[in-house]
Amino acid sequence: MPSVFHEAIVELFRQRPMLAAQLLGNTLSVPLPSFTQARIESAAFADLTPPEYRADLVVVLGDQSPVLGVVVEVQLGVDAKKRLSWPHYATSLRARLGCPTCVLVYAPNERVARWAGATVPGGPGWTFAPIVIGPDLVPVIDVVNSGMPHPELAVLSVVAHGNRLPARRAALVATAAVRATEKLRDELRMLYYDLILGALSDAARKEFEAMDLKNYAYKSAFGRNFVA
Fold it and tell me: Which one of 8, 43, 47, 50 is least enclosed by Cβ atoms within 10 Å?
């Protein structure tokens, strides 16, 4: 069963489908076809016979018609069976949409990122390679304007670096993310706050609380589970 932490990261992409395109194009320098919108597609992939496979999220880039299907997978650990499902996701989505597809894997630590990035042998004549983004590739965002249009990327920056940077710098990244989420609806903002706090080291959390949220109480399901 997916963890609350896993689901909270998936929610970043669900709330902002364009985040997948931003990571592919801006962060990983993957050439993208021309598109005007990003939308969520069903993440279920059914064979002619059971079982049904289900990805974490599917984002479709396009305008009047799809031009690229992106299967988004949040991978917290090494799982050989899961890795073998990624080629199925890509080919099934291509058959459904009739356009190119890829699998974008987010891994919160470098060990899992290196494992996920290995080529999957498909058989004679073909192989499959997911596109992987680990914490080293996520930009460090420690300064934002209050009107920053991409709060999910700022939150992902904390998830990637909150436990890796020196405490003071990590606290600045967390504070930037909090400011980037100020205009979101309360329920989503509270979930992001708790995800930010849960991603920080103990030392960074103390710095952060002193800066911004000294009296903050965990309010979302993620936050309560994190404390437990």
Answer: 50
Question: Which tokens go with 72?
Answer: 């988004």
Question: Could you write out the DSSP letters of every residue in 130-181?
Answer: -EEE-GGGS-------TT-S-HHHHHHHHHHHTTTS-HHHHHHHHHHHHHHT
For residues 119 and 190, membership in a common domain is answered with no
In tens, the pLDDT along 111-152 reads 999 999 999 888 898 899 999 999 999 999 988 765 556 899
Give how many domains the chain has, as a whole number. Answer: 2
Residue 102 C-alpha from the chain's centroid: 15
Q: Last residue of a domain, which of 136, 162, 188?
A: 136
Q: How far apart are CA 25 and CA 165, in angstroms?
A: 25
Q: Residue 41: helix, strand or coil by DSSP?
A: strand
Hey, what are 86's tokens?
């990624």
pTM of the model: 0.84
**Domain termination site, one of 120, 136, 152:** 136
| Same domain membership, residue 165 and residue 57 | no
Distance CA 198, CA 151 (A): 17
Q: Provide the residue range defining the domain that includes 78.
A: 4-136
Dig out the tokens for 220 from the structure: 């979302």
CB 197 within 8 A of CB 165: no
pLDDT tens-digit map of 52-73 = 568 899 999 999 899 999 999 9
